[in-house]
Design a protein that fits this description.
Blueprint (H helix, E strand, L loop, with lengths): L15 H5 L6 H16 L9 H34 L6 H11 L8 H22 L2 E11 L5 E11 L2 E9 L11 H12 L3 E6 L2 E7 L5 E7 L5 E5 L4 H23 L16
Parallel strand pairs: 3-6
Antiparallel strand pairs: 1-2, 1-4, 2-3, 4-5, 6-7
C-alpha cells in the first residue's frame, strides 16, 4: 500500500503469524456468533427477502467480512505508521480507495465512513508518537530464523525510546474498554520469534538481496490502538523461554501440515480400524 512489497516472502517459508495461528482461540467462535446474531437482528431487511440458501449463505459469511474489514483497517494503520517513520505523509483517502478497489471489503461503506473510523486509530497512533518520541532505527524489518524450525516475519518498528532499544508491534482493536483486546500469550510468542530470529533479510521488491545478523533489543512492546483516539502501551516479556515455546509450536505446525498432506492416503497413515472379536 506504500510502494514496498508487503510481505515479500509470502508462501516461501512459514511465517510467525501462521505458526501462532495454531493456538486455540476460544473467543473467535463466540465473536463470530455475536456478529452474526447482531446482523440478523438489526439488519433483517438485508436477508429476509432472499431464498433460504442465499439467506443462509449471507448470514454464514457475515462475520468473515467483519474480520476482513478489521484486518484491512490494521493494514491501513500500519501503512500510516510506516509513512510517518519514513518522515513522509500518509494519504489516508488514497489508501482507503486502494482497499475498496481491491475487493469487497468496505464496499458497503462510503470512503468518508471508513476514514472516520480509521482516524480514531490514527489519532491514537499519533498520540503514542507524541508521548514517547521514538527514534526510528528500522521499519517493516523482515527477520528470518534458519534450521529445523525455520520461520520468517516482519517487525513493525525497531527504535530507541529514552535511549534504550525497543522492538514494537502495532495492534488495532475495536474494544475501547481498558484491559480488553489484550492477548499476552500470542504477543509474547510473536515478539520472541522476532527477537531471536537469526538474521535480517533485505529485499529489492520481492527479490532477496542481502542478509545481516539480527539486532538485539532491550525491550519488546505492543502499541494497542483502540479506535477511539486512545492507545495502550504494554511492555511484553519475550525472552528465551518464549522463543523455545515458539519453536515447539513450529514443530506442531509442521506436523499438522504433514498430516494434512496424508489425508485420503489411508495406507500412509498409522491408523487402524479395530473391530471386536467374534
Amino acid at each position: 500500500m506504500n510502494g514496498r512489497v508487503h510481505r515479500p516472502y509470502r508462501d516461501k517459508i512459514k511465517s510467525i503469524t501462521t505458526v501462532i495461528g495454531v493456538l486455540d482461540k476460544p473467543g473467535l467462535p463466540w465473536g463470530a456468533a455475536n456478529e452474526t446474531a447482531a446482523f440478523a437482528v438489526h439488519h433483517q431487511a438485508e436477508w429476509d427477502h432472499l431464498s433460504y440458501a442465499d439467506a443462509y449463505d449471507r448470514l454464514r459469511k457475515h462475520h468473515k467480512g467483519i474480520w476482513d474489514g478489521r484486518a484491512a483497517m490494521g493494514t491501513l494503520v500500519h501503512a500510516v505508521a510506516e509513512a510517518w517513520a519514513d518522515q513522509g505523509e500518509a494519504d489516508v483517502e488514497a489508501l482507503v480507495a486502494e482497499v475498496q478497489a481491491a475487493g469487497r471489503i468496505w464496499q458497503h461503506l462510503t470512503p468518508e465512513q471508513v476514514i472516520v473510523e480509521a482516524n480514531g486509530f490514527i489519532d491514537g497512533l499519533e498520540l503514542w508518537w507524541i508521548d514517547w518520541e521514538p527514534e526510528v532505527l528500522a521499519v517493516e524489518e523482515v527477520v528470518r530464523h534458519n534450521g529445523q524450525n525455520a520461520y520468517i516475519g516482519t517487525c513493525d518498528l525497531r527504535c530507541l525510546i529514552n535511549g534504550e532499544t525497543w522492538r514494537i508491534d502495532y495492534k488495532t482493536t475495536g474494544k475501547t474498554e481498558d484491559g480488553k483486546g489484550v492477548y499476552p500469550d500470542s504477543w509474547r510468542l510473536q515478539l520472541a520469534a522476532l527477537t531471536y530470529a537469526d538474521e535480517i533479510v533485505h529485499y529489492d521488491g520481492a527479490e532477496e538481496t542481502d542478509t545481516e545478523k539480527n539486532f538485539p533489543v532491550s525491550h519488546c512492546g505492543i502499541v494497542l490502538l483502540r479506535g477511539d483516539g486512545r492507545y495502550s502501551f504494554y511492555e511484553v516479556t519475550a525472552g528465551g523461554t518464549e522463543h523455545n515455546r515458539f519453536l515447539q509450536l513450529c514443530g506442531i505446525y509442521d506436523w499438522l501440515q504433514s498430516v494434512k498432506k496424508d489425508q485420503g492416503l489411508v495406507e500412509q497413515v498409522p491408523l487402524r480400524l479395530l473391530e471386536p472379536a467374534q
